[in-house]
Amino acid sequence: MLTGIIVLLIVVVAILLVLLFAGIGIYNSIVSLRNKADNAWHQIDVQLRKRYDLIPNLVETVKGYAAHEKETLQEVINARRLGIDAKTVTDQSKAENMITSTLKSLFAVSERYPTLKADQQFSKLMEQLNGIESSIAYARQFYNDMIMKFNTRIQTFPGNMFAGMFKFEKKDYFEIEEPAAREPVKVKF
After folding, report:
1. What own/partner pairs with CB < 8 Å and gap ≥ 24 does 160-164 have?
2. Is residue 13 part of a domain?
């Protein structure tokens, strides 16, 4: 009788240990996905900062050739400021939509000034911008993949139980909302 109780106690303790380690594994996997998503966001931020640093140089170069295009240049500067000041993924998405739109306007201005298009500094800046745009697109794709994995993990069983207990919340995708902004920035020389 005493050995039966000991065996039952050992089985119960073993089951509790298995459940404990499974719970720790689930919790750690959620934390790992959250950290990967945060890191992916920081990679986007690095690329966006590069773009923000490049924009004033583009504006100054265009300003030298098209000084009377002040409204377009001011829109580009304002859009850049919105992007720098964005605090959430949603705000950043809106700012990036505006930046893409204003950069298209800036490129349209450059089309009207053949000497600007021929300027080596402008050409170099446009090449850099094109490379940064590609990096942003890749980083955004990677970020959204991490967000999908994280959100799936916290919304499916048994991860949803841990998400509720430890207050893990769904994260937003970094999306481009405007249909026109979904098109790549066209760089023409």
Report:
1. 162/23, 162/26, 162/27, 162/30, 163/30
2. yes
